[in-house]
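Appendix C reproduces, verbatim, an entry submitted by the partner laboratory led by Prof. M.T., so that reviewers can inspect both the input and the predicted structure.
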Amino acid sequence: MSASPSFLQRLFGRTDPKEGLRPLYNAVIGEGRQPHWYLDGAVPDTLDGRFDMIVAILAQALIRLEQQGGAQESVWLTELFVDDMDGQLRQEGVGDVVVGKHVGRMMSALGGRISAYRAALTGEGDLAEALRRNLYRGAPVGDDALTHVEGALRARWTRMGCRSHDALLTGDIG
C-alpha cells in the first residue's frame, strides 16, 4: 500500500478545503487572461471585460463540476472567486463599506451568466446571443470576433466534458 496521500486526502485534508480547488481556479484565471480573447475576440481589455471573460470560463467550470456531482466543489470554487474579487477591489482602493455591494453585484452577474451559459451550452439557448448580452454587454461586436469567442468557448466546453473529475480539479480545463 502506498504511503503517499490519495488525491481526495490531499483535496480534503487541508485546513481550508476550498484551497484544493486552487489549481482549477488558477487555470480559469489563466485562460481568461489569454490575449486571443481580447485581440481576436474583441472582448474589451478593461476591468469589466476581463471580469466578463473570466466569468464565462468560470461558468463552464462550475457547470461541469455540478454535472460531475461536485456541488460542494462548485461552492468552494465560487468562494475562491469571491475572495479574489474582494481582494482585487480592495487593491483598487475600494473601501470596506462599498466592497460588499460590489461583490454582491458581481455574484448576481455570475449567477445570471451561469444560467445563460448553461442554457446555451446544453442546447436550450443561443450562445452567440448570451455572449452579446453578457460578455459584450450589448455593445456592437463584429461577426469574426463573436465567432472566435463562441468557437473557442464551445471547444473548451467539449474538452472539459472529456476530462475526469479529478483531472478537472487539478486544473486540466482542456
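The CA atoms of residues 10 and 129 lie 41 Å apart. Additional entries are available on request from the coordinating office.
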